[in-house]
Every structure is written in C-alpha cells, then in structure tokens.
C-alpha cells in the first residue's frame, strides 16, 4: 500500500510517500523557520498561509522523486492534531479534497504517534513493547508502548516541554529560534562543570518532569554574568550546563522507566531526540541496563511527512479510515487513540 503523508501541524510542511512493501519512496520538507525568525517564535496565521502555498508543490515534488503518478497512491494520511488549528485545517482540507478527488481512503494521524513511530522508518527498528521518550517542542512524555495505539502515559512535564526550554534558553543566550540545535552547537564550545544547574524532580519518585526552573536558572546565570553581552566562553559554558542538566534529567527518568516497566527497549522521538549529547548519554545508560536504544535519523526527529505517512499506513492497513468531515483536533490526548 502506498500512502501519501501530509504534515502541517506547526511551522513545517512535510510531505512523503511511504510504501508498506518497499519503505519510504520519497519525502520533502519546507521549513518556515526563516519567516518566523523575526518574531522569535511561530506566528500561527503566517504558518497557515504558508502551508497553503507549499503543500501542493511539495506533493508534486515527492511524486516526481518517487516516480509515481496519482493512480499509484492508495491512500492519504494527514496530521489531524494536536497542533495549531489553522495549520491543521490546511493539511486536513487538502488531504480530504485529494482523497475525494482521487477516490481513495484518508486517515487522520496523531502527530505524536507519528513522532513515536518515526524510529520504525530506520533499519533494525524496535519491536513492541518498548518505553518511549517523546521529547519535542510541545511534549515531554514517557510512554509505555505495547503496540500501535496502546499507549500508557508513565509521566510527563508538569510545565515546559524540553524543546520549549531549549528554545527559551536560546533566547536568553541571544540565539535565534529554534534554539535546540543552536544551544547544542554553542554548548560544544562550553566547559562542563563550570556552572551546575539542578536536575529537576529527580530527587523524588515518579516519572514526571519540570523544565521551567531550568529556564529561570539560565536567566539568573546569564544576568549574573553581564546579560546577553557576557563573554562568549561564559555563554558557551551556560549553554553546556543547561544541556547537561536536561540530558541528565531525561537519562535519570528513562532509566527509572525501564526499571519500573522491566522493558529492555527505549525509543526516543521528537525534535530533542536529535540532540547528540542526549543520544550519547542514553546509549551509555541503556548499556548499563542491558537494554537497547532506538531513534530516527535527525530529519525524522523533527516534524516531517514520512512519520505521518508511516503511521497512517499502519492504521489504514488495519482497516481504519477517517472519512467523516474535516475536523482537526488541536488538542487530542494520545490515550484516545484506538488500538490496531
Ligand atoms: P510537538 O511535536 O510537541 O507538537 P514540535 O512539532 O514543535 O512540537 P518538534 O518539531 O518535534 O516539535 O521539535 C522541535 C523542537 O526540538 C524545538 O523545540 C527544537 O528546539 C528542538 N530541537 C531540535 N533539534 C534539537 C537538538 N539538536 N537539541 C535540542 N533540541 C532540539
Ligand atoms: Mg517545527
Ligand atoms: Fe512535532
């Protein structure tokens, strides 16, 4: 089955064609980052308008790259939620229209299920069951995954998501949006240990997270050293201390989740899972637990069409469709998803 995936939940237009027999045939992404940069974050109305401009040309590009025509496509998958309502409306209206015009089924995909299943697009994918750490711009969750749609939330952030904390720390350090990759690059020049940031909520039991305190800690440290104008080495050392704190906190909670569930496989997904230091630290941690770590290539950690095409394909193969009306779900708990 060949499924055309459409991702428009936020500030990236992602399109891909996934084939259940031959894997990913082609994918393309347009990031609106430059457009939103002047505003220091995503402007929802600008995002929706830009998705309108990008979706169809990107679909044509993907079809051409894959050497496929419309007759080859068996179904459409699109991101139904969660995300920005206007951006979701664009993807869902186009997906439903194409499905109607081409007379093929369509399936609305949960954006976080897309992220969660992205490591399945790689070689040697994990087998169910496993523990998943979802770390993105809007989510930080530990989930026990027994199969597609069988998700038990083990813990989540009580305030900011890890990616959001990276983005805010970046702003305090005078870096552009999105901050994650930029903080990580700056941290490369930093000395570990000059500043010691807390590891929030690791001193008490449980699998919840809190990252808003790290933000305050970053701000106070920057201000104590002359604000954004502080010298480059100090900025780098602060970035390193921040990254170390996030990485170590996530590693402690992931180890706890593996031990609590008795599982031996950990997958990480979402934008922050592209972070090299996080991958290296978790690799070390799972070795100690005699467990294995799985993640997607960096381009499939952040938003992309391939994960939506893949997740939609699995549900479509199981006979699920979503033909009724155009109803995006800007808020949509993963617990509401149907098992396959
Ligand atoms: P959600 O998926 O929760 O709806 P989102 O789609 O905005 O949110 P993603 O696209 O998965 O989030 O990820 C973007 C986030 O990942 C941003 O916060 C970004 O700063 C962060 N990020 C990306 N690369 C890195 C990196 N190398 N290190 C740390 N953070 C990163
Ligand atoms: Mg994004
Ligand atoms: Fe995302």
Automatic annotation (TrEMBL):
InterPro entries: ATPase_NBD (IPR043129), Gcp-like_dom (IPR000905), KAE1/TsaD (IPR017861), Peptidase_M22_CS (IPR017860), TsaD (IPR022450). Fe cation binds at residues 111, 115, 303. PROSITE patterns: GLYCOPROTEASE. GO terms for molecular function: iron ion binding; tRNA N(6)-L-threonylcarbamoyladenine synthase activity. It is found in: Cytoplasm. Substrate binds at residues 134-138, 167, 180, 275. Residues 24-310 form the Gcp-like domain. GO terms for cellular component: cytoplasm. Pfam families: TsaD. It comes from the Bacteria. Binds 1 Fe(2+) ion per subunit. Its EC number is 2.3.1.234. Keywords: Acyltransferase, Cytoplasm, Iron, Metal-binding, Transferase, tRNA processing. One of its GO terms (biological process) is tRNA threonylcarbamoyladenosine modification. SUPFAM superfamilies: Actin-like ATPase domain (SSF53067). NCBIfam families: gcp_kae1, T6A_TsaD_YgjD. This is tRNA N6-adenosine threonylcarbamoyltransferase. It comes from Parendozoicomonas haliclonae. The lineage of its organism: Bacteria, Pseudomonadati, Pseudomonadota, Gammaproteobacteria, Oceanospirillales. The gene is tsaD.
């Amino acid at each position: 089955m060949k499924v055309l995936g459409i991702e428009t939940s936020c500030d990236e237009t992602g399109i891909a064609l996934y084939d259940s027999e031959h894997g990913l045939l082609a994918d393309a992404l347009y990031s609106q980052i430059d457009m939103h940069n002047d505003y220091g974050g995503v402007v929802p109305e600008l995002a929706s308008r830009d998705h309108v401009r990008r979706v169809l040309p990107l679909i044509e590009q993907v079809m051409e790259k894959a050497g496929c025509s419309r007759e080859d496509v068996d179904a459409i998958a699109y991101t139904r939620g969660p995300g920005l309502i206007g951006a979701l409306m664009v993807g869902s209206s186009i997906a439903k229209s194409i499905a109607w015009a081409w007379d093929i089924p369509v399936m609305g995909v949960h954006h976080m299920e897309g992220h969660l299943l992205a490591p399945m697009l790689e070689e040697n994918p994990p087998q169910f069951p496993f523990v998943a750490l979802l770390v993105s711009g809007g989510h930080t969750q530990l989930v026990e995954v027994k199969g597609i749609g069988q998700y038990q939330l083990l813990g989540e952030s009580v305030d900011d998501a890890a990616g959001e904390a990276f983005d805010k720390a970046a702003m305090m350090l005078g870096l552009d949006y999105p901050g994650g990759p930029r903080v990580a690059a700056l941290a490369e020049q930093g000395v570990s240990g000059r500043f010691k940031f807390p590891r929030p909520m690791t001193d008490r039991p449980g699998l919840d997270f809190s990252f808003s305190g790290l933000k305050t800690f970053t701000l106070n440290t920057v201000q104590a050293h002359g604000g954004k104008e502080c010298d480059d080495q100090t900025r780098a050392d602060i970035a390193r201390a921040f990254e170390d704190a996030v990485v170590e906190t996530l590693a402690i909670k992931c180890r706890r989740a593996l031990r609590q569930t008795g599982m031996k496989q950990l997958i990480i997904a979402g934008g922050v899972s592209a972070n090299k230091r996080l991958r290296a630290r978790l690799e070390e941690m799972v070795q100690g637990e005699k467990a294995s770590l799985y993640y997607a290539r960096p381009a499939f950690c952040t938003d992309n069409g391939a994960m939506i095409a893949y997740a939609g394909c699995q549900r479509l193969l199981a006979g699920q469709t979503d033909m009724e009306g155009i109803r995006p779900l800007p808020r949509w708990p993963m617990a509401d998803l149907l098992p396959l």
